[in-house]
Every structure is written in structure tokens, then in C-alpha cells.
Amino acid sequence: MELDGVPVTPDDLSVLALVNYGHFTSMRIDGTRVRGLELHLDRLVRDCRTVFAADLDPERVRTLARRVAEAAQTPAIMRITVFDPDLGLGHPAGQTHPRVLVTLRPAAVDVPPPIRLKSVRYARDLPGVKHTGLFGTVYHRRAAQTDGFDDVLFVGPDGLVSEGATWNIAFVEDGRVTWPAAECLPGVTMRLLDAAMGRLGVEVRTASIAISGLRASCAAFITNAAVGLRSVRSIDDVELAGATGLVEALRKEYDAIEGDPL
Fold first, then answer.
1. CATH class, range 2-106
2. What is the 3-state secondary structure (H, E, C) of 169-229?
3. Whole-number pLDDT of residue 166
């Protein structure tokens, strides 16, 4: 765990813990390679302008990430968090000096089983930004797991599906893949899969998906950098059809994507 290339201290993390204002990206590293690295860096630069009205040097971020990756046991999930340790809760509008925190956690190596989802009416603040404000997300994920589900699916006040706690969701019917047309975080894995589906000749579109209109004849899968693709077993009390052939084909195509060097 390093902050701007040096070991982090508890004092460095106090503002992140107490004020919790910042943004991040999470990516799987294998050796020192990352799928969609440029997309992750673009996200950090874009979100830094939104959150701090400041420019972030992507090459510096890359250097800091590489420094940690070279000493790590991989595969691992790397999280790059951008925050200002000097930000004050009472006067956050002052001049900011964002810094870069790089942390690691182990990556899963096995394909996870199909996931069971509980829907809830909720929308993240600034859904297009991958920010550190995770209270609502964790609260609803915890409630879903307490009720016997694996995770939570967010649905807007209009009843339309948007995204999951930390992932995107796609629906499959008649061989066609549909991403929800709703405000959500456009995931890096989602964007890489769009390109993969183009190579495989899979029809893909974006459309509104009403939670009340889900049918057992459709299938679904979730995507993020940590799991790649994971099939959905059920949403609420609707048991979904499997799309094993398509999901496996997409997983193989995704796994074959060569990572970019840090």
C-alpha cells in the first residue's frame, strides 16, 4: 500500500476514512499487465476533473501502479484511489492537491457460480463517477445478503434496471445482448465486452429494461474487472434461463484479451 510511491501512514488515511471524498478505479493485474489499462487511466483523469476540478497525470499514475505491481504476487486486484489528505470537511471548496493511493487485494482464480440478485430502488450519487461514497451501496448489498441473496441490483424510481453494487449487468434473449439504458457507471469490462461481442458477431444494444417485465426465458450476466463475467441465476423470485454457451464464449474471448503493460 503506497501513497505517491511511499508507504502509507494512518495519518495519511484519516481524511479518506473520516471525510470519504475521492474517486478510484479497480483493475485486475496479471504480472504487470492490465486489460483495458487506458480505459482505467482515462476514467481516473476524467473523474479527477469532476471530483477535484484538477488535472491528473496518467503517466505518473501508471508509474506508481507499476511500482506496486512489480513487487506483488499476482493475479491481484489493484485499486487506485485519488484523494486529498488535507481536504477539510467544513471547507472542501478550497484548493485541492489530489494524491494517488495504490492498494492490492488477492484476485479470485476460480469461476464463481451463478449469482442470485435482489432488486432495490436506489441510485448512487453521481452514477457516472466511480467515487468512494459507498455507504448506500454497502448498506443495500448487506441487506440483500442478510435476506439470503448474493448481491443487490439497483432499480430506478421508474422501475428500470440500472446497475449492480459494483458491476454492470447485461440481459440475453434470442441470442441478443442488451445493456440497460439508465444512468450508471460505464464499466471498463463492459466496454471491452462490447468489442468482444463485435468480434464474435453477437448483436448488442442498449434499451430500457423494466424490473417488472423480467421473464424466465431471458438470461443475464454481470461484469466487472474482478470477476470478468458471472452468470445470473435469479433476480428476486424469477429464476432465469441459462446462457451457458454465449457466456462461455464471451468469457473465453475476454480472457484472451492481452493486457496492456503498466
1. alpha beta
2. EEEEECCEEEEECCCCCCCHHHHHHHHHHHHHCCCEEEECCEHHHCCCCCEEEEEECCCEE
3. 96
